[in-house]
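User: Could you walk me through two proteins back to back? I'd like the raw sequence and the structure tokens for each, with a short line separating them so I can tell where one ends and the next begins.

Assistant: Of course. Protein one, sequence then structure:
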Amino acid sequence: MLNMIWPLTTATLLLGAITPFSRGEVFTSMANIDMLLQMGEDVSRIIDNYVEEDERRLEQLKKLSAEYKSHKVQVHGQEGTDNVIVNPVESFAIVKQLADNWRYVEQLMKTNSAEKLIQNFTHHTHNSVVRPPSEEDVIGMAVGLMRIQDVYKLDTHDMAEGKIRGVLDGRKLTAYDCLEIARVAYNKQDFYHTLLWATEAWDRVQKEDEPTIDEATVLEYIAFAMFKQGNIEWAIHYTTLIKQVDPNHPRASGNLKYYQDLLDPEGKPRKIDPKKLPPPTNRRPDDLSIPERDVYEGLCRSEYPIPDKDRAKLYCYYKRNRPYLKLAPIKVEVMHWKPKIVYFRGVISDEEIAVIKQLASPLLKRATVHNADTGQLETASYRISKSAWLKDTEHEVVKRISDRIDMMTDLTMETAELLQIANYGIGGHYDPHFDMSTRGESDPYEEGTGNRIATVLFYVSHY
């Protein structure tokens, strides 16, 4: 979700769907994916100029150039419409392919005749609003995909097929792509997702005409994940397969003996028939740092409907308690009472949203959180987004929105904080938290304005 936030001492405004221009991590901001597509077109032009100078030697670079050109067309079509990438698998594939392709481009150009091209590309990326995707971006996108998978309980195979909740509108992932996601999970000691994605990689590599990854490598990830998830017999089975596809594998024999010893300390090898084994278990571990995880993920899936007895107490009305509102009343819908949640309808226009986007775009930076122990602002894995801040004095639209919140909430804006704009990337999120300061935090009221007492959110669709 792409968001724009306005944290206030009295209220917080949250808007979505900003189209920012910002340096930094690609994975933290959805809008950067679109800019990567544009960068792909620019890279294509640079490569084409070089290819003209050395046609025969650079046939492979021509192919890469065509791939760069195709990225934006695949997403936006031949007419170059401004459709935004909605499918997270598509976004992951684009970032990963661009990252892989540029590494390959560099290898092809390690000659003197390529120095000019490299210089041109370096100059272009240095002056560009977005840099080429890095390993950090691929990791960030993979983590985002796994978070989306968990929150919405998506099937691994469907995701690899580019299908999200029954809608097929993304590219398919290769076995190598799937194993990259498994590798990211493995490096984070997340063997639940390691097993899901390594198993999908194994299914795919067996069907690929030209395998994109070594079979033994895939099997080793599966075997170890099976072991870590308590499926010792399945670990033995997959390690045995490693020895079949690669008899000289350097770790297979040692691992196989280790797993067999776990089943029989006397070291007697046991023949494993996978057809007679119960299905492997793969339990998603609890996250002790987020005790509310299951509840908030269920809310995202709309699994907690309002009981009928509470729904009967909800209603809509026109807010007319201020002179200005006599002429232009605000549409209000009471959504929930404890805590009180109110839906204000039609309180921001497309034109105002466009102005906010334009103002905020050049200012977006990686969002930070307040460390309750140190009192300092810092980046955190539980808040993945980019944000910017706007003052009322920067534009009449900002001031107009501030005045409107005053009328919506009947709360003074004199102690309000600046307008915060947040743009979330693939799987971007902010873990469950309180907007107000809580006991034990360092200097929560250093500005002398008191605690936050309400939050106003404006969600604006990115597509």
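----
Protein two, same layout:
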Amino acid sequence: MRALLNCFKKQDGLFFVRQSSSVQDDYAISIIWHNRLIHEKLHKKNSYSYYFETRLHYHDSLEHAMDYFMKIYKGVVKPLSPEAAKVAYANDFSPSISQRLFSSNSRILKSSNHFLPESSSFDTTGTSDSHPFNKGRTQTVHNKQQMLPTIEKRLVDPLVNKRVVIIREEQLKFGKVLGEGNFGKVYAGEYREEHGRSVPVAIKALKATMDASAREEMKKEAFVMKELSHPCIVRLYGVQELLSMGALLDYLKKHVENATRTLFSFWVIQIIHGMAYMERKRFVHRDLAARNILMQSHSRIKISDFGLSRSVDSNDYYVQHSDTPIPIAWYAPESLFHYKFTSKSDVWSFGVTMWEIYSFGQYPYGSMPTEEITQFIEANGRLQRPAGCSSSVYEIMLWCWTHEPHDRPSFRDLLKFLANRSEFSKAVRHFQSLSNY
């Protein structure tokens, strides 16, 4: 191991994975951290469950475990290439693991810096002894059992097997790039329908280098969106409807002078209508937030971004069994601690989205670290009333943040309740026709 440190001691964050020499099916991870060589153990419980010694999380695969590992180290780690590892530690490097993790164009381990959100939960500025995994071992965890994901044998089928419309390339006209992410680019464009009408659209184009898992995630979002048809939900043609004014969150931050309480009520009622429709269609959104509300005009909005959305079974809930990064500040307690999602957990997220609107786009919980947010929520802490927000509106948010899901309102309940509140009655009447969907 000294050879590895001597060769790469200046490259903090480099690591490689090898099979354990002492325990069959276990793995050892060697990482250069603050000029020291640190070893972490990864245990394999069964074919679909891996865990580190902290046992705070179980992971579906070796790749998912390594994805989590890189988040723990604040996204600064990067895999040592197989060739370099062979040179540094030839007798203990596993070519099979090398091929699996480094040579497969895997999204998970290509380069953590490009896709992983930085976690503020861990301080990596201390001494070499206080690296993230050690901190995780020494800190006090309240209700530790609640932090373990719910593992159930019965999985809910996440998608309805529906055909997505195939659009010929000549029916699309690409325009300027609207945005670019880890999976690809989003273009403004035009879609010429079969009968000749041209529709402004947003075209998601996956990078040619993306692996099968990325393509599958994009297909999942398309399958979910294809099932939904509502004036308050972004429409999928095969490409997406274009809403050129952008996200509600950006509008709130840039146009404070134009954001009136009347507009707030219009946006809130439309979000509720769209979510009530999803509720009836037995879908959970799982990522409802102001950043995922797009603006058609100053007063008209639509719900978008269905990448985490899933259909639910007869029990009306979906259980997450993967380590997909989650928007913690918008999640209900049962989702944070048990990975359980229902329409009522969407109601909680709606309450946070409503808080974003009335706070003019502030970030929920401010600079509070992620682990403190979960502890704060578990201790029944709630976001404070935004400045200028009436007590009656704040009470609606608090209703959405009731700890027990069965005590929260449904989206249908919210519509009925707000119809009799002076701040929302005009908006309810204005959008009354949306109840027909």
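The chain is about 30% helix and 15% strand.

Let me know if you want the two compared in more detail.
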